[in-house]
Each structure stands twice: as structure tokens, then as C-alpha cells.
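#lab-general

N.A. 3:47 PM
ok so I finally got the sequence cleaned up, no stray characters, all 144 residues accounted for. can someone with queue access submit it? mine expired

B.Y. 3:52 PM
send it over

N.A. 3:53 PM
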Amino acid sequence: MKAGQGEFILVINPGSTSTKVALFEGETERAKESIEHPSDLIAGFNHIYDQLPLRTMAVRSFLGRQGVDLSDLSCIMARGGILPPLRSGAYLVNEAMIDTLLRHVEQARALPLPPGLEENRYAVLTLHRPANVDHRDTLTAIVG
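B.Y. 4:20 PM
back already:
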């Protein structure tokens, strides 16, 4: 695949011993893979944050096999974070969620920015309303 053929979207779903990835060009899935991480290797990490280099290398390797560079990506969608496991969906932020995030804010701040992002030059955005996210034209009108 070459840049310029379409909008490339990378989807990442980290699991306990695997990282599932999929690459889309527009709405068409071009490749997907479940990258297995040996449980004894994962057990050697003190915290999930310590796994970042391992998982980053695995995802970059997947992209390389597809002939896609990080700079070719229009969007990266990922699951996970510092909150405990939650059922899928949108949530009203409450005190328990805020307390959990505040307990881990220093760990989050210590994480390096992904390659290609400059400090204070990016934004994190979540959209949940189906009327806003289910149709490309509507979503594009919102995010530009």
C-alpha cells in the first residue's frame, strides 16, 4: 500500500497477552492481525505502562509489513487506558472516575508522546453520539 491511495485508519485493541490490530483504507479493512505476546514475557513487566515499547514495536512492525508509515495514518483508534475495565459505551463522568484518573495522572504524564506528535500540538477527542459519528460527512463537519 502506498500513501495517497486513501485515508488509512489504524485500530488497536490491546489485550492481556496480545495486541489486536486492523488497518482500514477508508471503510475497507486492508489487514488485521492478532499479535501474541508470550505470557512469561508480559509477566516480567511490573506495570502495564512498562509494556508500551514492546507493543509499540509490534504495531510498527505490523504497519511495516503493510507498507504503511505512521505518517500515512489519518487516524488511530485505540481501546484501553488507565481506567479499570468498563462495559462499552459512553459514560457520564462521575467522582469515582475522576478519582481513578487523578490517582494515575503522574503515570499518564510520564508516558512519551507517540512519534510524530509534538507537545501542545495535538488534541484528544472522543465522540459518541451515533448521529455524529456514523456518517463520514457529519463527522468531517465536526472535526474538520
